Amino acid sequence: MAIPGTDLAGAKLALTPGSHRVTADVPFGINVYGFAGYDSYGYPGGLSLVPLQNIASISLSPENGTAPVGSRKELTATVLDFAGQPIRGAKVTFRVEGTHSQ
Questions:
Q1: CA-to-CA distance for 88 and 80, rounded, in angstroms?
Q2: pTM over cut 0.85
Q3: Of 48, 49, 81, 93, whose CB is crowded by the most CB atoms within 10 A?
Q4: Are the CB atoms for 92 and 58 separated by under 8 Å?
Q5: 15-21: long-range pairs with CB below 8 Å, 24+
Q6: Which of 97, 91, 96 minimizes the C-alpha distance to 7?
Q7: Can you state the percent helix, strand and coil of the chain, rounding each to 5?
């Protein structure tokens, strides 16, 4: 189900007893919890965090540019590790500056 005001989604699944594996093509987080009459547990189960020390470079394409006010300008940030491989799930924040930065 979509989480209002974000580009995220969530789900609540009832599972049968036993081991389970969760995979995805994109980074994700999961919280595992359970409870009974007199006990409970909860823990994060894979947060897909990117260790900052593994980031060797960040490039932006195009490096700069202009666009008319009210129009869109698309940029691509590429984050690479020391082996030159892309790092998925790294958060990149863009800041727009200039005369009309709205």
A1: 9
A2: no
A3: 81
A4: yes
A5: none
A6: 91
A7: 5, 25, 70
Measured in whole angstroms, how far is the alpha carbon of residue 8 from the centre of its chain?
9
95 token code pair: 């800041």
- Whose tokens are 């919280």? That residue is 31
Q: How far, CA to CA in Å, does 74 sit from each of 49, 65, 66, 94?
A: 25, 10, 11, 11
Please count the residues of the chain. 102
Residue 34 has which token pair? 């359970």
Q: In the structure encoding, which two tokens stand for residue 19, read together?
A: 């081991």
- What distances in angstroms separate CA 29 from CA 9, 20, 32, 97, 101, one per listed residue? 11, 15, 10, 32, 33
- What secondary structure letter does DSSP report for 49? P
Q: What is the pLDDT of residue 39?
A: 92
